[in-house]
Specification:
The complex is a heterodimer of chains A (about 260) and B (about 240).
Chain A (H helix, E strand, L loop, with lengths): L2 H29 L9 H10 L1 H35 L1 H16 L2 H12 L3 H25 L3 H9 L4 H38 L5 H10 L3 H29 L10
Chain B lengths: L7 E10 L2 E11 L4 E5 L6 H9 L6 E6 L9 E4 L11 H5 L1 H6 L5 H10 L15 H14 L4 E5 L7 H14 L4 E5 L3 H7 L2 E6 L4 E5 L13 H18 L2
Parallel strand pairs in B: 3-7, 3-8, 5-6, 6-7
Antiparallel strand pairs in B: 1-2, 1-4, 8-9
Helix pairs in contact in B: 4-5, 5-6, 7-8
The chains are: A mainly alpha (about 260), B alpha/beta (about 240).
Protein name (chain A): ABC transporter permease
Membrane topology (chain A): Multi-pass membrane protein
Keywords (chain A): Cell membrane, Membrane, Transmembrane, Transmembrane helix, Transport
C-alpha cells in the first residue's frame, strides 16, 4: 500500500475524530459546562496518560472476557445451529431458548449471573456469550437453511449422504451468513462483558468506569470509555479482516 | 463405461408443477445408448419432466422405469442449467463432488484425466471464479462424467454460452457421452439437429410429444451440413406452428 492510500484510508476516520473532539471542546468551552459533568478533551487526554497502567490492566481484563465470550459463544452457537439443522426435535426445542437468550435483557440477568458465577471473569464471559448467542446462532442457522436448491438437487442426484451434505455443502454455503453474525457478535460482545463488570467486579473497564463515576472522576471515566470504544472498533476490524481472508471465495467489494 | 445403458420407459406419466397439471397420460420411450433431444417452448414442462425422470420430483401419476428391469435410482446423472460449481472448492474437488458427498474415496487420477479431456489440464487447482463461463460448464460436464452413470439427463446445459463455445461444448458432449442414454433439453433447434438421435417436440395444450425426423449422419453433425440446416429450418417451423399465432 502506498503512503498516499494509507493517508487516504486514515484521513476520514481521523478527520471525523478531530471534528468530534473540536465539537466537544466547543461545547465545554462555550457552553460553560462544569468539568465534573463533561471534562474537556485535554483533561481526558491527561487522565488517559496519567492512568495508562490502570487503563491498560482494565482493558486487558475486558479484552480477555470478551475474547473468551466470543470464542465460547461462537463455538456453542455454531454447534447448536448445526444440530438444529440436522435434527427437527432439536430445532423445535432449542429455537425458543435461543430467542429467549435475546429477549431477556442482560442488564436484568447481570446481578444473578454475578451471584452464580462470582465476581471473577466467569460471570462476564457468560454475559458476553449470552449477548452474542442469538446473532451467531440465528444467522448461521438461516444460512444453513438457505442453501441454493440447485446444489441440493445435484447432491440428491449423486445419492449423497445427508450428514455429508450438511458438512460439505450446507456448511460452507452458510459461512458468509455466519460471518455476518460473527461481525455483529464482535461489535456487541464487549458490551456484555462491560455490563457484567459494572454490576460486580474487581477489575475491567466497566469496573473502572463505575468506580470513577462514583468518585466524580469524570475525566478517567471518559478515558476508560475511549479505550473501550477503540478496543471494540479494533476487535471488529480484526474479525472483519480475518473473515474476509478466510472466505476467499465471497465477493468483497470494498474498493474504498 | 461400466454399465450398459438402458432405455427409459415413461408410462401414463402425469407431471404437475406448483399444483398445476402440466401434462397427463404421457407414454414415451427414450431409446438406449443415444441422445434424445427434447424441445419445446418455455413453461411447457420440459424441466419438470426431466426432474421426474431424475427422481428429484415425484410424478403425479405413472411410472418412469429402465427397460432392463433394474431400478433406475443410482444410475442417473443430472446436469442442470447452471454449472452449480462450489465456489469455495478447487476445480478438481468440484469434479469429485459426488464421491465427497457419498463419503467414498475420491479418484483423483480419473478426475484429472476427465479434466484433461475437457482441455483443463492446467486448471486443476483453480477456483471456479477464475474460469470463464465455457470453462465452468466444461468442469460441470467433467463432474457429470465422473459420476459414470449410464443415463445422463441435461437441462439446457449450454444455453448460457456464446455460439462458438456452445458448438465446442456440443462436440465435447457428443464425444464423451457416446453410448450412454442421454436426455438433453434445449430450446435451440440447431443444437437439437446437431446432437439428436431422437428429436422430440413438446407442444400443445394438453401437451403432446411428437417425434421429428432426424437428419442423417453420426453426431455431432456439422452445423453447416445441408441436411442439418434443412432439419433445423423444418424444426423451427414446427415450433412456430406449435406456439400458435
Amino acid at each position: 500500500m502506498s503512503m498516499r492510500r494509507i493517508a487516504g484510508r486514515l484521513g476520514r476516520p481521523v478527520g471525523t475524530l478531530c471534528g468530534l473532539g473540536l465539537l466537544w471542546w466547543g461545547i465545554v468551552r462555550l457552553g460553560g459546562v462544569p468539568p465534573y459533568l463533561l471534562p474537556p478533551p485535554g483533561a481526558v487526554g491527561r487522565a488517559l496518560w496519567a492512568q495508562r497502567g490502570l487503563l491498560a490492566g482494565a482493558a486487558g481484563t475486558t479484552l480477555l472476557e470478551t475474547g473468551l465470550g466470543l470464542l465460547l459463544g461462537t463455538l456453542g452457537g455454531g454447534v447448536l445451529a448445526l444440530l438444529m439443522m440436522a435434527s427437527a426435535p432439536v430445532r423445535r426445542w432449542m429455537m425458543p431458548l435461543v430467542l429467549l437468550s435475546q429477549a431477556v435483557p442482560v442488564f436484568a440477568l447481570a446481578p444473578l449471573l454475578v451471584l452464580w458465577f462470582g465476581f471473577g471473569i466467569a460471570s462476564k464471559v457468560v454475559m458476553a456469550v449470552l449477548v452474542i448467542f442469538f446473532p451467531i446462532t440465528s444467522s448461521f442457522f438461516d444460512g444453513l437453511r438457505r442453501t441454493p436448491p440447485g446444489w441440493l438437487d445435484l447432491a440428491r442426484s449423486m445419492d449423497a449422504r445427508p450428514g455429508l451434505v450438511l458438512l460439505r455443502l450446507r456448511l460452507p454455503a452458510a459461512l458468509p451468513a455466519f460471518a455476518s453474525g460473527l461481525r455483529v457478535a464482535a461489535a456487541i460482545a464487549p458490551l456484555g462483558a462491560v455490563v457484567g463488570e459494572w454490576v460486580g467486579a474487581s477489575s475491567g473497564l466497566g469496573f473502572l468506569m463505575q468506580t470513577a463515576n462514583t468518585r466524580f472522576e469524570t475525566d478517567l471515566m471518559f478515558a476508560a470509555l475511549l479505550v473501550l470504544a477503540t478496543m471494540t472498533v479494533l476487535l471488529w476490524w480484526g474479525v472483519d479482516r480475518a473473515l474476509a481472508r478466510m472466505l476467499y471465495w465471497v465477493p468483497d467489494d470494498r474498493s474504498d | 463405461m461400466t454399465a450398459p445403458a438402458p432405455a427409459l420407459r415413461l408410462r401414463d406419466l402425469a407431471v404437475a408443477h406448483g399444483g398445476r397439471a402440466l401434462f397427463t397420460g404421457l407414454d414415451l420411450t427414450l431409446p438406449a445408448g443415444v441422445f434424445s433431444v427434447l424441445l419445446g417452448s418455455s413453461g411447457v414442462g420440459k424441466t419438470s419432466l426431466l426432474r421426474v425422470i431424475a427422481g428429484l420430483d415425484r410424478p403425479a401419476a405413472g411410472t418412469v422405469a429402465a427397460d432392463d428391469g433394474a431400478r433406475l435410482a443410482g444410475r442417473v446423472a443430472w446436469m442442470g442449467q447452471r454449472d452449480l460449481l462450489q465456489p469455495w472448492a478447487r476445480v478438481i474437488d468440484n469434479v469429485m463432488l459426488g464421491d465427497r458427498l457419498r463419503g467414498r474415496r475420491p479418484d483423483r487420477d480419473r478426475a484429472a484425466e476427465l479434466l484433461r479431456r475437457m482441455g483443463l489440464a492446467d486448471r486443476l487447482t483453480a477456483l471456479p471464479a477464475e474460469l470463464s463461463g465455457g470453462m465452468r460448464q466444461r468442469v460441470a460436464l467433467a463432474r457429470t462424467l465422473y459420476e459414470d452413470r449410464p443415463v445422463v439427463l441435461m437441462d439446457e446445459p449450454f444455453s448460457a454460452l456464446d455460439s462458438v463455445t456452445r458448438a465446442r461444448m456440443q462436440d465435447l458432449a457428443a464425444e464423451t457421452l457416446h453410448g450412454r442414454t442421454v436426455v438433453l433439453i434445449t430450446h435451440d433447434p440447431l443444437e437439437a439437429c446437431r446432437l439428436g438421435q431422437e428429436i422430440l417436440l413438446m407442444a400443445g395444450d394438453p401437451v403432446r410429444v411428437a417425434g421429428i425426423a432426424v437428419p442423417e449422419g453420426a453426431v455431432p453433425r456439422p452445423a453447416d451440413e445441408e441436411s442439418v440446416l434443412h432439419a433445423q429450418g423444418v424444426l423451427l417451423r414446427r415450433m412456430l406452428d406449435a406456439a400458435g399465432p
